[in-house]
Amino acid sequence: MQQANKLSQNSREQTFEFTETDFKSLREMVLTHTGITLAEHKRDLVYGRLAKRLRALGLTRFCDYCDLLKNDKNNEIEQFTNAITTNLTSFFREKHHFEHLAKDIVPALMDSYRVNNRIRIWSAGCSTGEEAYSIAITLRESIPDIDRRDIRILATDLDSDVIQTGSSGVYSKTRIEALDSERKKRWFKQGSGEQKGKVQVSPELRKLVTFKQLNLMHEWPMRGKFDVVFCRNVVIYFDKPTQKPLFERFANIMRPESTLFIGHSETLNNVSDRFELTGKTVYKKIR
């Protein structure tokens, strides 16, 4: 049985012609369009994620797919980036960030609101939206009169598919299993009929969040300054030469002494001197 499985796996692996030249070409395109640096050992991952695209397009060789991407006659670049990028997230992932937001950041934001009359928070690399809605829950639970204030959350991601999921606010019921019963009841509507087994985020949360597709490597259309930026578990895929100008751009679009949250395995050491570490993967803009 093991031998049969191995033969079956090898057969799948050889369905499409995939040379080292193809892999190198795809790695360069991934870097150009997403800023993600793919290591040599990611060859099988690239094959696995893009094989579906070749199958859908009726192609048999990766070199033909590379040519298609270079010409981009069918807007395949969007499908390509959607397939390559990783979208792993959950509600209140890295819980300490949201506790810090509620306990320390929100009171400071309320003080600054008297001067600025607005609060803007950016969830960069928001994936399917759980992070943005976790921020929205935290704000609503911390600011009783939030509907009387100009407070908005921008959620962006490179992947157009996950942006659509976030905008709909519909998730499998299993996605909220870890939340306490009060939050489940207050912020999620249980589905019925064809939607049984699913939940939808409440309108009170959805009105706070705007979802937009955005490539962090391209021009940013936003002009206003942000008070808080979440960019977590995104730059882990970027090399240092890509990270440095990216965090420079983040600093430029943030207010003085604003807050930046990054992922648990990420750091700004030797990347940016415009932020000061104030907590566990929590930074304050200092210049």
Backbone shape? globular
Give me the count of strands. Answer: 10
Helix content: 40-55%
Mean pLDDT: 90
Ends distance:
62 Å
At CATH level 3, the topology of the largest domain is: Rossmann fold
The largest pleated sheet is described as: 7 strands, mixed
CATH superfamily annotation of the largest domain = Vaccinia Virus protein VP39
Which regions have little confidence, pLDDT < 50, spanning 5+ residues? 1-12
The CATH class name of the largest domain reads Alpha Beta
Q: Whole-number radius of gyration?
A: 21 Å
SSE series: HHHHHHEHEHEHEEHEEHEEE
Characterise this structure.
With 287 residues, the protein is α/β, with parallel strands linked by helices. It has two domains: 2-84, Chemotaxis Receptor Methyltransferase Cher, domain 1 (Orthogonal Bundle); 95-285, Vaccinia Virus protein VP39 (Rossmann fold), CATH 3.40.50.150. Helices cover 45% and strands 18% of the residues. It has helices at 2-13, 20-34, 43-57, 62-71, 76-84, 95-116, 130-142, 160-168, 181-187, 203-206, 240-252; strands at 119-124, 151-157, 170-172, 188-190, 198-201, 209-213, 226-231, 254-262, 275-279, 282-285. It has a seven-stranded mixed beta sheet. A three-stranded antiparallel beta sheet has the order 3-5-4. A hairpin with a 2-residue loop joins strand 9 and strand 10. Helix 3 packs antiparallel against helix 5 (76-84) and helix 6 (95-116) crosses helix 7 (130-142). The longest helix has 22 residues, at 95-116. The protein is globular, with a radius of gyration of 21 Å. The chain starts with a helix and ends with a strand. 32% of the residues are buried. Residues 11-287 form the CheR-type methyltransferase domain. It is an enzyme of class 2 (transferase).
